[in-house]
Specification:
With 159 residues, this protein is an all-alpha fold. The chain contains nine helices and no strands.
Amino acid sequence: MCIKDLLEKHTLKCLAGGFIVGVLAVGAGMGFLHASGTKTFCGQCHSMKHEAATFAMSSHREQDCVECHLPHDNTAHYLFEKGRTGIVDMYHEIMRDYPERIKLDASARKMVSENCLRCHEATMSYVNTAPGGTQDDCLKCHSRIAHGSNHLEGGIKVE
């Protein structure tokens, strides 16, 4: 019996099986996508030990890393950046060439500030900046909120 005969004879079973496999694959992918953005997952890398330890003591400790460090403007951009940053992080972890204190580049600072504004939009309506100032660089004044300034400090407590 050839595959064509088998498919013709069992079309409904083949479609149902394919559907089930597809649902399981999508479910597993979504589960991994969620798990790979948690602070537990991100903090497992040797390079992120300091960031994980200080974040665990911060006022934002209930959030996952992706809330601040990935864009939330649309799903395609989120998935692209998650993949890109994951590959970059894995490369540097394998090469063991991360600096002792990881610093955000200009693009990452912009993304983090956009996420601050996304979560704290209501608060920002009450914030006045100095003449000529701007509200789009939250890290200019609040850089130590989530990760502190040293190993013993988990950032500014605002609770």
